[in-house]
């Protein structure tokens, strides 16, 4: 019996260390996003800025489409993912001097905001909605790192 208790205590110790390491990893990532960049604003500050600047540009149809596209994201992370995606969509809309968020701007911003590994879920959702992905293929072909440096110059039209 005491051997079983000893193994249970050892298991519990490793379990707690693993859980704390996972939590620390996510906290550290959030901390890095809060650090100011060269312009004095952090990544999260810019996300919030673009969300606030483009709130009035969203129509009901686009909001519904965004909710459907974000639905594969686990519920626990959905709000955070949605905020990031809405920020990038707003950034694209403002960079292109649009007066409202269109379906094309929404899909382009969504592709740019999501990592390449999540594109298969997006493609599946777009196929379910009977939306042709052909006009967006060049966005799918680039990796997220390709967008970061000079995506505005590449995609302004």
UniProtKB/TrEMBL annotation:
<dbReference type="Pfam" id="PF11084">
    <property type="entry name" value="DUF2621"/>
</dbReference>
<protein>
    <recommendedName>
        <fullName>DUF2621 domain-containing protein</fullName>
    </recommendedName>
</protein>
<dbReference type="InterPro" id="IPR020203">
    <property type="entry name" value="YneK"/>
</dbReference>
<feature type="transmembrane region" description="Helical">
    <location>
        <begin position="6"/>
        <end position="28"/>
    </location>
</feature>
<keyword id="KW-0812">Transmembrane</keyword>
<keyword id="KW-0472">Membrane</keyword>
<keyword id="KW-1133">Transmembrane helix</keyword>
């Amino acid at each position: 019996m005491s051997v079983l208790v000893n193994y249970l205590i050892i298991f519990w110790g490793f379990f707690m260390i693993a859980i704390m390491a996972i939590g620390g990893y996510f906290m550290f990532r959030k901390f890095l996003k809060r650090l100011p960049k060269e312009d004095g604003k952090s990544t999260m500050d810019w996300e919030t800025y673009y969300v606030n600047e483009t709130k009035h540009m969203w129509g009901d149809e686009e909001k519904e489409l965004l909710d459907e596209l974000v639905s594969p994201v686990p519920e626990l992370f959905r709000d955070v993912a949605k905020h990031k995606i809405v920020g990038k969509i707003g950034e694209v809309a403002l960079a292109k001097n649009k007066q409202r968020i269109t379906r094309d701007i929404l899909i382009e911003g969504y592709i740019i905001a999501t990592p390449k590994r999540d594109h298969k879920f997006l493609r599946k959702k777009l196929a379910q909605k009977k939306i042709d992905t052909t006009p967006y293929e060049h966005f799918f072909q680039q990796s997220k790192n390709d967008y970061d440096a000079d995506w505005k110059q590449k995609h302004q039209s």
